[in-house]
Amino acid sequence: MSIIATKNIPLLNTEILALKIPLIIIGILFILFGIYLWVNAVIVCKLDDNIRSNKLVTTGVYAYVRNPIYSAVLLVCTGAIIIANNLYLLVLPVIYWAFLTILMKNTEEKWLLNVYGDEYINYCKKVNRCIPFKRK
Q1: Considering only CA atoms, which of 96, 97, 99, 124 is closest in space to residue 110?
Q2: CA 48 → CA 57, 59, 60, 129, distances in Å?
Q3: Rounded distance, CA 64 to CA 45, Å?
Q4: Over 60: is that where the pLDDT of 5 sits?
Q5: Domain segments of the chain: what residues?
Q6: pTM of the entire structure?
Q7: What are the tens digits of pLDDT across the range 18-56?
Q8: 104: burial class by Cβ within 10 Å (0-12, 13-18, 19+)?
């Protein structure tokens, strides 16, 4: 039994050789930002303590993204895909984001709305779900 490498199949070989080094640098930056986001969400914002005390965390990285842990995973995986230099794989972060959005709307966000009410509604108006930036 032989294994066929995708680099030998023209349609699956989407590597852009001229951009190899820049893409590796960009991928590493995505990974580092993802790690930074995760560390800040879990350790710096003391997520476990806030969960135990039933507090809605809206400071630190949570002031820029409602789900920084999910965003961190998205960034790290996207960075790895960019480093892999395969255009076809770039569809995976989009699928992850869409799946995650549907899942969060139908589970976690309903629960948070039920628990925190207006506080959560106001927070949602100010902060994006997955992509880190603060709304006006």
Answers
A1: 124
A2: 11, 14, 15, 20
A3: 13
A4: no
A5: 19-126
A6: 0.79
A7: 788 999 999 999 999 999 999 999 999 888 888 888 899
A8: middle
